[in-house]
UniProtKB/TrEMBL annotation:
The lineage of its organism: Eukaryota, Fungi, Dikarya, Basidiomycota, Pucciniomycotina. Keywords: Covalent protein-DNA linkage, DNA damage, DNA-binding, Hydrolase, Lyase, Protease. PANTHER family: ABASIC SITE PROCESSING PROTEIN HMCES (PTHR13604:SF0), DC12-RELATED (PTHR13604). The keyword Nucleotide-binding does not apply. Residues 182-274 are annotated as: Disordered. One of its GO terms (molecular function) is peptidase activity. Residues 188-205 have a biased composition (Low complexity). It comes from Puccinia graminis f. sp. tritici. InterPro entries: SRAP (IPR003738), SRAP-like (IPR036590). This is DUF159 domain protein. It comes from the Eukaryota. Belongs to the SOS response-associated peptidase family. Residues 224-240 have a biased composition (Basic and acidic residues). One of its GO terms (biological process) is proteolysis.
Amino acid sequence: MPPTRYFQPTHGSLLNTINARDDKVVEPRGLWNTVKGKKRCVVLCEGFFEWLNKGKDKIPHFTKRTGGELMCLAGLWDSVTYKGTTEELHTFTIITTSSNNYLSFLHDRMPVILSDRDSIEAWLDTSSGEWSSSLSKLLKPFSLDDGLVSYPVPKEVGKVGNQSADFLKPISQRKGNIMSFFNKQTRPSGSHSSKQAASSSGPDSKQMEKKGLVGTAPAVLHGLEIEGPHDADTIKDEPKGSPAPSPKKTPIKRSAASVESDALPPERKVRKVS
C-alpha cells in the first residue's frame, strides 16, 4: 500500500508499507489511522514465504495450513489516483504480529491469520466506520501451533519473474531431486534381473533397496536391455578335485555358482530398446 496519496512513491518507500505492524495499526494516530476504520480486507492465499538466515546463507521456507486450507490474512486496502495520472491504483497491505511458538525459529514476525468465521466476519464489518478494542484483540499470533507446517523450498523462488508450482513443494519432493528419483523406482517382481541384483548387492544394499535409497538394475539402465545367457540354473558347479586355478587367471563369478577358471565368459549383446 503506498505511503502517500499525492505523488508516485519510490520503490524503496513502497517496501516500508508492504506489511503493517499490529502495534502501529492500533495506535490512534499514524499512517494506518485513515483506513483501518473503513477499509479492512481479507487476503486469501495458500501460504507465505519467509527466509531463514543461517549464517551467511538464506534458506527460503514456505508456510501453509496443515490440512491445505486457504489462509485468511487480515489486511487493509486503499485506492489512490496520483497527481498527473488518471488511473486509479488499488492496493493492500498485510498486517503482521509476533510469531507463534512454531514459527519462532524462522522469524520474529508472522501474518495475522483469521482462523474462524466469527473473526473473519468481525474484521470485515466496517458498518460503524470506527476502530474498536474488539478488533485489536484479533491482531494476535495464530494460536493453533499444530495447524501450520513450514519447510524449505528451492532458492529460485527468490528470483523476480520465476513462477512455478514446484516452489510450493518441499525440496525433497521436487522433480529431478536425486532422492525423489530413487524413491519412485519400483522393483520388478519375479524377474531374474531383480534376483541377480539382490544376490550381488549384499545385506547392506538390500536394506537400502527396501528404504528406496537405491534402484534395481533394470531401473538404472534407462532404456538398455542386456541379452545373453544369464540364468544361474544353466551354470554348472566346478567339479570336485579340479586343479587349482592359475594365479594369472581369475575365475569369473556369476550369481551363486562359478565356472571353471579357464572358461571364457559368455558373450553378451547390448541392444537398445526403442
